[in-house]
Amino acid sequence: MDNRFATAFVIACVLSLISTIYMAASIGTDFWYEYRSPVQENSSDLNKSIWDEFISDEADEKTYNDALFRYNGTVGLWRRCITIPKNMHWYSPPERTESFDVVTKCVSFTLTEQFMEKFVDPGNHNSGIDLLRTYLWRCQFLLPFVSLGLMCFGALIGLCACICRSLYPTIATGILHLLAGLCTLGSVSCYVAGIELLHQKLELPDNVSGEFGWSFCLACVSAPLQFMASALFIWAAHTNRKEY
């Protein structure tokens, strides 16, 4: 094997490993989107009710999004989290003190919720099914796992190539990484579109802002790494075959 092809193969493997780690970390963390709002110190009956509804298994899309807006929420592919006062009292503190502590409470999306239909008017089951948002949500959930699976399968083929001391099988690895990059890019695009459509339905309060978090950024970085790894794998295998 020519040193040029061996070097390209090693660089492609490193890029593939980094992109796999980034993708796995992105799937497993809860910071795809973050909301910034004033900390709610008032533990009134209304706030207690919102917290209870948020952690309920029957919470609909509008219910948990209202809580996310109000309590510095973060959303991942698997979980949603809010930040609430650690010690809940049935009165309003006169002023905030340095000892005021908050704690993060998270609730996992069940498989039923992941595949549940989205409604034209969030929370209103009589408003009809919003097919676009429904399939965007399902794609943003499924595509990252497809991407991760393709990269793992490509790694197995690459391992076989190393055992056989041949670059020929890495063409398949390159194609799998190309497909994985497309899946990752599709997942990111679906997530952005879904968030924008959601905010058109449920406008953010005046004192609340939202931004994409570092989990989302990891997925965005993973996609070009997958494309670069794919290009190196295919180039090394194809050029080595031609010279041979």
Automatic annotation (TrEMBL):
What are the subcellular locations of this protein? Answer: Cell junction, Tight junction; Cell membrane
Q: How does it sit in the membrane?
A: Multi-pass membrane protein
Please provide the record's keywords in A-Z order: Cell junction, Cell membrane, Glycoprotein, Membrane, Tight junction, Transmembrane, Transmembrane helix
| Gene3D superfamilies in the cross-refs | 1.20.140.150
* Lyase is among the record's keywords: no
Q: Which residues cross the membrane?
A: 6-27, 141-168, 174-195, 216-237
> One Pfam family this chain carries?
Claudin_2
Q: Which InterPro entries match?
A: CLDN1 (IPR042356), PMP22/EMP/MP20/Claudin (IPR004031)
Look up the domain of life of the source.
Eukaryota
GO CC annotation, single: plasma membrane
Q: What does this protein do?
A: Plays a role in negatively regulating the permeability of cells to small molecules.
Protein family according to the UniProt entry: Belongs to the PMP-22/EMP/MP20 family.
Protein name in the entry: Claudin domain-containing protein 1
Q: Which organism is it from?
A: Homo sapiens
